[in-house]
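User: Could you go from structure to sequence for me? I need the amino acid at each position, not a summary. Structure tokens:
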């Protein structure tokens, strides 16, 4: 089985589990409780996405494992520091964060943020190590164990009449269990490399790959910040219930699509990095995988655009048809995001991180502005979503053109 199919099979099965479980969860938890989950994730992911200062992305790049293992150690060390930092933030500013989100209930759940940061940072670090070493079966096992654990804990706590905390425990447990196949493979095959870890090499690699915390971290933080700010805006301008509907739209449609894009992207990143090191352009790999993504996504998102409310209402219950309506509005953006997502590593490979960051920062500002303008214009979330979708379409079309252009630059 090819690397893409190995990871993709794991990703597909991993997404069937939460997609099936959401039918049950939609009847165990209310839209308001899902809204609280989205607010928690809005805070937690701000820290978790930069838990490693993005140094884990550099694990794939060195030609020698002796060097790469020091970058892995660096990523894990920074994860520990970020865990402590996130704990201090929610400890001292938890009430202010809850007030800003206009959701007093959020305060009681923020204490779980540091644990979320810790387990997600460990997962991210060993996931990229597994990508480097081509442990594609373990990556697939990891995805399945992550999603199945998340679903099991969430459903179990739902039947036990827990509130949003059950959904939060599911998220944390999923990251933890999902990391075990990756850590196990490292310990079984590569633990001898730990002897090569030393302070001077860690410092050297931190300096050599300083663009990752300086630029890539800011880029990712900008993207996540946009999502988090949107969640807070929806909660504050509209309600936790509206955020619950919007959050389910994103989770049900965009996240499973993202898993497929992530599977393709992991293999693309490894192969493209390897080929770039050999002084070859990567346009051939890019165009081939782009065609595959276009063919995979077209029928799925066309059906969503035509029958979103009916599908959501039938599968999840009539009250969730609103989420389907939101998905219908956003389907063009979802499709283009699905198409482009595997190739966001191209600027890293071709040393175009700074421009990519500036482009994304501009788009994130425009998306937040569009959503706010939609609210001011007629106080309807649908108007905001249509404006956001329009800007996202323009941005992703340009991004695809730019990726195609820079994929032919020689190192």
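Assistant: Here is the amino acid at each position, in order:
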């Amino acid at each position: 089985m090819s690397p893409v199919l190995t990871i993709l099979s794991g990703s597909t099965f991993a997404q069937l589990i939460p997609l099936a479980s959401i039918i049950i969860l939609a009847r165990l938890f209310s839209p308001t409780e899902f809204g609280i989950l989205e607010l928690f994730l809005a805070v937690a992911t701000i820290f978790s996405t930069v838990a490693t200062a993005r140094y884990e992305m550099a694990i794939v790049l060195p030609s020698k494992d002796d060097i790469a293992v020091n970058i892995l150690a660096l990523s894990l060390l920074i994860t520990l520091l970020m865990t402590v930092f996130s704990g201090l933030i929610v400890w001292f500013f938890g009430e202010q964060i809850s007030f800003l989100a206009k959701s007093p209930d959020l305060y009681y759940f923020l204490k779980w943020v540091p644990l979320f940061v810790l387990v997600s940072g460990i997962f991210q670090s060993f996931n990229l190590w597994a990508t480097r070493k081509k442990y594609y079966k373990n990556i697939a096992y990891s995805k399945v164990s992550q999603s199945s654990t998340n679903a099991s804990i969430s459903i179990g706590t739902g039947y036990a009449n827990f509130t949003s905390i059950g959904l939060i425990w599911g998220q944390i447990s999923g990251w933890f269990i999902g990391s075990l196949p990756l850590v196990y493979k490292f310990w079984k095959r590569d633990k001898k490399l730990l002897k090569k870890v030393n302070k001077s090499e860690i410092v050297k690699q931190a300096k050599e790959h300083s663009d990752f915390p300086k630029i890539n971290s800011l880029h990712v933080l900008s993207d996540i910040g946009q999502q988090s700010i949107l969640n807070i805006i929806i909660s504050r301008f509209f309600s936790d219930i509206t955020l619950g509907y919007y959050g389910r739209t994103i989770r049900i449609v965009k996240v499973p699509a993202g898993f497929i894009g992530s599977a393709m992207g992991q293999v693309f990143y490894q192969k493209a990095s390897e080929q770039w090191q050999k002084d070859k352009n990567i346009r051939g790999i890019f165009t081939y995988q782009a065609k595959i993504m276009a063919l995979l996504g077209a029928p799925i998102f066309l059906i969503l655009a035509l029958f979103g409310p009916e599908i959501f209402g039938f599968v999840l219950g009539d009250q969730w048809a609103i989420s389907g309506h939101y998905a219908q509005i956003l389907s063009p953006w979802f499709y283009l995001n699905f198409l482009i997502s595997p190739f966001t590593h191209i600027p890293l490979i071709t040393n175009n991180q700074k421009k990519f960051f500036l482009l994304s920062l501009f788009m994130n500002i425009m998306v937040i502005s569009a959503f706010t303008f939609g609210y001011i214009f007629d106080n309807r979330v649908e108007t905001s979503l249509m404006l956001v979708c329009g800007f996202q379409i323009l941005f992703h079309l340009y991004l695809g053109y730019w990726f195609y252009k820079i994929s032919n630059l020689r190192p």
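One structural detail worth keeping in mind: The chain has a mean pLDDT of 86.
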